[in-house]
Amino acid sequence: MVGWLFDLVVNLVVGLVVNLVVDLVVDVVVNLVVNLVVDVVVNLLVDLVINLVVDVVVNLVVNLVVNLVVDLVVDVVVNLVVDLVVNLVVDLVVDVVVNLVVNLVVNLVVDLVVNLVVDLVVDVVVNLVVNLVVNLVVDVVVNLVVDLVVNLVVDVVVNLLVDVVVNLVVDVVVNLLVDPGGQPGGGRGGRPGGWVNLLVDPGGQPGGGRGGRPGGGRGG
């Protein structure tokens, strides 16, 4: 009987103590350890993993993406835009401005210079030379030719005509009026102051008529 009670008491006490100790130890230790381990490990791991993942992945991805995007944007867009704009501007400036300015300046200068030089040369040189040559030729040649021709014509023609006409008139008038009969060597004397004497012998001295030629001429 005593043994049984002792066993019962011992079992109860041991069971209670063991249960309490186990419960306390398990609850406290397990909870503490688990909580600590979970908190520490999980938090550390999560923080580390998250930080690492975030830092590494995000930074790498962001850096890569940003770098790629920036590089692409800078290289492609900027270079293309700059190249296009610069090329277009340069081409436009060079082609339009330079060509227009050069063409205008060259054309204007060439036209003005050529026109001025040509006009000056043509106007001054040609006009001077032409005027001088023409004036000289006209003055010299025309004057010489005119003078020579006029003098020759006047001298020859007039003198010949005058001589011929005068001689003919004198011969005819004298022969007809003074000695119409034309007796050989027997011309009659001029009448004093008559109109025949005015034609033949303007002196009109009495008896101053020339004798007629034989057969109608003047006396020898």
Automatic annotation (TrEMBL):
Chain ranges passing through the membrane: 69-90, 96-118, 125-146, 152-178
Highest taxon of the lineage: Eukaryota
Keyword set includes Membrane: yes
Compositional bias per record (Gly residues), positions renumbered to this chain: 204-220
Residue span of region Disordered: 201-220
Keywords linked to the UniProt accession: Membrane, Transmembrane, Transmembrane helix
UniProt-recorded name of the protein: Uncharacterized protein
